[in-house]
Design goal:
With about 475 residues, this protein is an all-alpha fold. It has 21 helices and no strands.
Length: about 475
């Protein structure tokens, strides 16, 4: 049987590679579609997804996390979760189908009625994947997941580009989203050996719900808050502005999702296995923080510096108004891996009650940015989000310090190299990009992007910071493992 370390290394490697490939393919298709479609068309889909995303949380109800977190799970538990998810998804679809005209009237966008009714099928498709996806996560089968997600992205992306090119407009985005989930589901059900039995256990429901109910409330709070920004922008600003904002957010999320979602997918199962060993969990958490923050901070710094050439070269002139939003949003995402790792520690320890408590506190603080958007501007909202992100980090680390003695001071000390290198790169290269604003933007993007990457690599190799040694150690372990095969 493989050791926990080998399982974690293999899981981390495949999860990271899988996310790079998945988001890389998604990014390429997204760039092509953005050139073929208009910002307001992206804005319409973003308006619809505000409500669909909230219903996602109800459908999952925290049961997916409960499956991964529990040490022992059986067919009775899994079948109960499956039927609960499916039942809630059908009810949710019915609600959205009936309320679509009212949502369209709220936004003053009549075409949203049909968009919402079609996109809401996503909720049922999502319900069909929850147990299957949770079992893959529980068993740390990230090579399989990487292949499933990559195939789905490629197939749905090719079809969407054809649709956009042949004049389908906003429906190219709608069908890309739906087909991606369809292709994921087909592969999950083919590859997994699990099928639901005709069982529904009240005892299983009660046991799982005692944990998942807090996760449901926490997830609902987090999702409603994150979607409120889009709701406000869509309501009080033109659809094109929501398109600019969501496109900038997607660029910002690219490094953040690669750095964090790849880690989160294996953090919970790994942390859950050592939940009764706080010192070991603390050591593992610090290692993960160093590596994830190194990638996230430096990627976002580079993206912020090169925001104008990135948008101009990849998307074209019609998306230039997304540049200031991207330049501000990178600061919102800087500490995201730390937020995610801290809350995963609470979940792995079974403290969904504490997770819910800190989510309530953070969301109360997050009311300010929403008010800033309504009464001032979208940029003011993003500045408020930056301030809230910093304050939320203090809240997130409070219980981590109590439970495994890993507070904010020690966490910031662990990632100081990434922060200092990022600051140095920003100080040196920001003026260069500004003074070269009249030069060919493709040349700036290629040359300065390469130069910044070489500078970061050179600094890490010369000074041999912990992050460099950690990544080298992981790659050496991976090579040694696969050399034996």
């Amino acid at each position: 049987m493989p050791s926990l370390k080998n399982t974690a290394i293999s899981g981390a490697a495949w999860s990271f590679v899988g996310k790079i490939l998945q988001h890389g393919v998604q990014f390429v298709f997204g760039v092509i579609l953005a050139r073929l479609l208009l910002p307001e068309q992206y804005g319409l889909v973003a308006m619809a997804m505000v409500f669909i995303t909230v219903f996602y949380v109800f459908v999952n109800s925290g049961f997916g996390v409960a499956i991964v977190q529990r040490k022992n799970i059986d067919q009775k538990d899994l079948s109960t979760v499956f039927y609960m998810n499916l039942g809630i998804s059908l009810l949710s679809y019915g609600i959205l189908y009936l309320t679509a005209p009212f949502i369209a009237k709220f936004y003053k966008q009549p075409e949203l009625v049909e968009i919402i009714r079609v996109l809401s099928i996503l909720i049922i498709l999502f319900a069909l994947s929850i147990v299957q996806n949770s079992l893959i996560t529980r068993d740390v089968k990230f090579k399989l997941r990487a292949r499933i997600e990559l195939v789905a992205q490629i197939l749905s992306g090719v079809i969407a580009i054809y649709m956009a090119y042949t004049g389908w407009g906003v429906w190219a985005i709608v069908w890309k989203t739906l087909l991606n989930q369809v292709f994921v589901n087909i592969q999950l059900w083919i590859q997994n050996n699990w099928f639901p039995a005709l069982i529904f256990s009240k005892n299983s429901f009660k046991t799982l719900f005692s944990f998942s109910s807090k996760m449901l409330a926490s997830g609902l709070l987090d999702t409603v808050y994150s979607q409120l920004n889009r709701l406000v922008v869509g309501k009080f600003f033109p659809a094109a502005e929501l398109g600019y904002y969501t496109r900038a957010e997607q660029f910002k999320n690219l490094p953040t999702q690669i750095a964090t979602s790849s880690l989160l997918s294996f953090l919970l199962p790994v942390f859950s296995k050592i939940q009764d060993q706080p010192e070991r969990m603390k050591s593992a958490a610090k290692r993960i923080m160093k590596i994830s923050m190194f990638f996230n901070v430096l990627s976002l710094v580079m993206m912020g510096i090169l925001a104008f050439p990135i948008i101009d070269v990849l998307l074209g002139d019609k998306w230039i108004e997304a540049v200031p939003y991207l330049q501000l949003l990178v600061f919102v995402g800087v500490f995201y891996p730390l937020h995610a790792i801290n809350v995963q520690i609470l979940v792995a320890l079974g403290r969904s009650d504490l997770f819910l408590r800190i989510e309530i506190i953070k969301k109360l603080m997050g009311v300010l940015p929403i008010l800033l958007a309504i009464f001032i501007s979208i940029k003011a909202m993003i500045v408020g989000m930056i301030i809230t992100s910093i304050l939320s980090l203090m809240v997130n680390t409070y219980y981590t310090r109590k439970l495994i003695n890993l507070g904010i001071v020690e966490q910031l000390a662990a990632i100081r190299n990434s922060l200092l290198i990022g600051l140095a790169i920003a100080i040196v290269f920001t003026p260069i990009v500004y003074y070269l604003s009249n030069v060919n933007q493709l040349l700036i993007l290629a040359s300065l992007g390469m130069l910044m990457s070489l500078c970061i690599y050179g600094i890490m190799r010369i000074f041999k910071f912990d992050e460099y040694r950690e990544m080298k150690s992981i790659f050496d372990d991976i090579k040694a493992k696969y050399a034996k095969r």
